[in-house]
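The data layer described in this paper is built around a simple, fixed record for each protein. Such a record has a labelled line for the sequence and another for the backbone structure tokens. For reference, a complete record is included directly beneath this paragraph.
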Amino acid sequence: MKKFLVSLLMFIIWWSSPVEAQITLNATDFPQIGDQFKVANDTTSMLLPGSSGENQVWDFRSLVIQDSFFTTVLDPIQTPFADSFPTANQSTLNINGTDTSYSFLLLTQERLVQLGFATSLSPGDSTGTDPQPDNGPIKIDRQVLIAQFPTTFGSTFQDTSEIALSITDDGGTLILRLSIIRSSTIDAWGTVQLPQGDFDALREQIITTTIDSIFIDLGIPDEEPIFFGGNLSIDTAYSFLAKESKGLLIQFSPKFISDQDTTSTSPFMISYALVEEVETGEAPVADFLFAVGESTGMIDFTDQSANEPTNWSWNFGDGMGTSTDQNPSYTYQTSGDFSVCLTASNEFGSNETCQTVSIVLTDLKGLPVGTSFRLSSNPFGDHLVVQLTNWNQQPATLRIFNINGQEMFQSTLRDQLEIDAGQWAAGTYIYQLSDQGQVLKTGRILRQ
């Protein structure tokens, strides 16, 4: 049971150690709700934590991944134990194989305090013969100071906490009390070399003094629990803290080695963050060209942005037209000067540029006297019927564009025409009726 409890405590210490990379750290530098971390373990490495002091280089590139676990920072209300820690504003979910545990913390501008942790593991023995397999979850209150802000190289603090755990069966109650003194010193800075790269880091030395006392309460009225035994242990762990890992980069934890274990090659179990490689690049520099049509109001825009944008946002400046295409076309309905703006973006940022586009539309010739142009309905549905009456000249030309200037339909028209619009998206469209290049009539129609 003691080994189980200390193992859970090491999970909490692992992720919640202060972040430092030759910088001053505040609360905003620590993991926030929604962050997720993957941690690898190497229990057979012969590596040691190296020396203290300034400007050190620690070469840990020989580490391998024997197994791994995930830690996710949650809002406490997302956990099944929120009611047990009402003052917590952060919780971590630790998943290691089929085992899960939660830690509960209070993060303020001045400090990070661990309030306790809980696990859904049953407190049975390792053989699976627990006489009470339905004891339920283990919840432990342990208020301990993890960090004070601001934190810098040379920072030190000490904190004392106590854990009390009791297990009851038909024979009585077994009580385990742990008094824990945790002394932390940032004793070195330098460069940590891992398989995935080099990191500027601080080293934290953590000396943990544990005094455990075991009592048995036989349930006899007016009798104090019987002292069964105790033990004093002092363990030293080392944490390397880097900004890229948003906390702990690598942890050297003391192994729990039994007298019968003759295979251990190092006194430490090593855990380290699998920091993903960060891609570097530059935000786009937005730019574009445009070509004005012959008095029709249609403009073709061509993206010329540098640094490989992946998204485009156009505003055509008339209060109506926008587009997310890379190279859109757009038809203006009135003459004037319009400020067209393009915002180009990628994963590294965005940039905007604007240019003035001058539109001069030819005056409409208009329909001859006695000639009319009608739409069956506006708004229209899957079918649009247009009718040109009393037209005695060469067939006119009907063109229909979407709001971004893309031509959706073109045909000659002498009297009546039915257009299949079943594949058109709902929205505004623009029609243009012309005769031998001269515009007779334009207007807006709406697809339901």
Q: What stands out?
A: The mean pLDDT is 80. The chain has one helix and 27 strands.
